[in-house]
Each structure stands twice: as structure tokens, then as C-alpha cells.
Amino acid sequence: MMIARIGVVAALVVGAPLAPAQSSFEAEWPRLVEAMERGAVRGDAAALRESIGVLKTMKAAALPRDQAKLVRYAIAYSSWRLCVLPAAGKEEKETLLETALAELKDAVALDERFAEAHALMGSVYGLQIGSSPFKGMVLGPKSGATVETALKLEPRNPRIVLGKGIGALHTPAMFGGGVDKAEPLVRQAIELFQQEPPDRPWPNWGRMDAHAWLGQILAQRGDRAGARAEYEKALALEPESGWVKYVLMPALEKGARR
User: Fold this and answer.
1) Sign (positive/negative) of CA torsion 88, 236, 164, 178?
2) How far is it, in rounded angstroms, from Cα 212 to Cα 248?
């Protein structure tokens, strides 16, 4: 049975005992999310690739609409996380971003009010622009439109506000972006995360990311002490964050020694 295969593979991903053949989506989903998020936090490319494989197997099963849209979103999310890691080569990154877009469009087709999917689509468009700035004229408006759609649906969703802030940070000031636009949005996202229950059903990621992005904004402003404090908050939430420990913190210390 397809579900039985999902149970076996998901158990292998998280290193847990094999699940019974009759295990349901509800039983397997939390363990799969845990494995996927652990891979994302650690920057573990192999774990994320394996999670994508399990999710694609799960996608092939006959699932109710609410579960099917979550699986598609999770494939896109894992692909999005993976494509920013050094272990992903240029061609793989392009494929991952195309996969993420296709899955998000399918998720929105299943539920046009799925705000999380609209918002993540905006972030994916943003990464495509980053890999080829010439695409900005076409993809920039698409990215902005998807984020605005998400905000209309869920204006107090911290991941959506964070995504808008990150987009503003990567948009030149002459086009309405920059640190002055990004900082209040990222700070707002942090406030909204404080209001969101930590045990909210997934998607519930982003708390660590918000502090890491605020740290980068403060570092750009020359506030190294403030940046370090935000990175420490990020590590308090996710002590195994490879991004913060091995990329952001060393970059901050290197800058301080200049």
C-alpha cells in the first residue's frame, strides 16, 4: 500500500521505529515535519532531499484536499530551504525553484485562500530574481502581487510579514526597498510571532529566521552589538542553526575585526 510505503520511508528519515502498515497521514505527518524542519535548521542538504522524496511519495497517494495542499506546500518549502544551501549546485537550484513554484501553484489551485502558499511563492520569485537579475522586471511584480494577496488573506500572519520584510531588504531603495523599509516589517513579524502559539499546526516556522534577518539588518546599519543580540536570540530558539552559527556569526566577528 502507498501509505505503508510512506510510513517506512518517513521512519527512516527521522530515525524512528517503523510505523505499522496502517499508519495514517495524521500519524506520519508530525514526524515528517519534524525531520524536514530539523534538516532546514541544520542546513542538512541530504535530509532535505530525502524529505522531498518522502513528500513526493506521499503526494502520489489519494489524500483529502486539505492534506494534499499541505504536502505540496511542504515540497515547495523544502525545495526553497534547500536551494539556498551551498550544497545545491546552480542547475539543482534552478530545478528546485521551478519545482517549488509548480507545487505552490497546485496548492493554491486546491485552496485559493491558502495564504501561506501565496506568500512562499513570493519568496520563490525573489530567489529567482536573485539568481538572474534580468528576470526582475517580470518576476518583481509577480513577487509583490503574491505577497500582497497573502497579506489581504492573513494580514497578521508573521511569516507573511517576514517575507515582505525580506523582500524589501533585497529591493533597491530606488524601487521602494532598503533597510529602512525592511526593519519595521521584520520587527512587526517578531511581535506577531510572540502572539502566535508555538504549537500552532504547521506551517509554524520562522521565529528563528526573523531574529536572524533582523540581525543582518542591524549589521548593515553598523550596530554589531544589536546584530549579535539578535543572532543569540535566534540560537536560543534553534541552537543547531548552521546558518547562524557558521555563516552569520562568523561574518559579524570578521567585520568587527576590520
Assistant:
1) negative
2) 8
The amino acid that residue 147 corresponds to is: V
**Closest-CA residue to 45 (of 109, 110, 104, 93):** 93
Kindly tell me the sign of the dihedral angle through the C-alpha atoms of 178, 215, 224, 86: negative
Indicate the pTM of the whole model: 0.88
Cell triple for 211: 531574529
pLDDT in tens, the chain (258 residues): 333 334 434 443 444 443 333 357 888 899 999 999 999 999 999 999 999 999 999 999 889 999 999 999 999 999 999 999 999 999 999 999 999 999 999 999 999 999 999 999 999 998 988 767 677 677 778 888 999 999 999 999 999 999 999 999 988 888 888 999 999 999 999 999 999 998 899 999 999 999 999 999 999 999 999 999 999 999 999 999 999 999 999 999 987 655
- Can you give the three-state secondary structure of the chain, one letter per residue? CHHHHHHHHHHHHHCCCCCCCCCCHHHHHHHHHHHHHHHHHHCCHHHHHHHHHHHHHHHCCCCCHHHHHHHHHHHHHHHHHHHCCCCCCHHHHHHHHHHHHHHHHHHHHHCCCCHHHHHHHHHHHHHHHHHCHHHHHHHHHHHHHHHHHHHHHCCCCHHHHHHHHHHHHCCCHHHCCCHHHHHHHHHHHHHHHHHCCCCCCCCCCCHHHHHHHHHHHHHHCCCHHHHHHHHHHHHHHCCCCHHHHHHHHHHHHHHHHC
**Amino acid residing at 25:** F
